[in-house]
What does this fold into?
Amino acid sequence: MIHGVVAVIEHDLRVFFKYKFTLAGLISMNLADLLIMAVVYTRMVSFNYFQFLAPGVTATGLFAAAFVIGREVNMETRRGYNEYLLSLPLRRAELVFGRMTAGGIRGMIYATPLLILAMFILKFPTATQFGLMLFAMYLLSMGISGLAISLAVALRSFERFTTARSLLYLFLIFCSTVFYPLTILQQILPGSLILFAQFNPLSAVADLIRGYLIGIPPVTGQSWTGLVSFSGAFIVAGAGLYRIAIERSVR
It folds into this structure.
């Protein structure tokens, strides 16, 4: 089973690196957020926004890169590519687990350099703290991959998928502490969205990185609990729905 999973992961990583223009666009967007917007905002607000945003950029980059697998699964489902996948000498569990794991690894490959850049900007953590940050990022990456796959197989229409993806981008990124502290969000968002921002997994990862690198906000068990709950739920949902989708393709 391990050999089959590794083969699926290797295939998906090769495909990922073929998205040269997509990756270039993501890198440009993330660096522009950090090196242009953050520098300008630092001169306009009462705190060092450049240092605040560096961990947030890591979380947004991870989210965008991990979500790419959803577009692939949606395309495969619409074009009948699942039938070809089922013809390969792989167990269905190997295929499902391999796709999920590959989605998580993709996000980590893209976001880890952003984390290292944040460490250069802020400070270098201890080995234990660095390991915990990587673990939190991988949990988020797996959860986002599961969310993307769930969305891809539930909404087979490409137009519906892209619309839903855009709405998720809007809520998960901008209703979070990626770009603004919670104290600022409390002044501009209604109560329901504030609650969403507090339990948003992107907020959890961004604040965990900030907590380990600058100590503000402090790392709490609530952040870890929310992150584990989100990732666990969507890993299970993504794997289950993807298996149903490939089973349906042979009926």
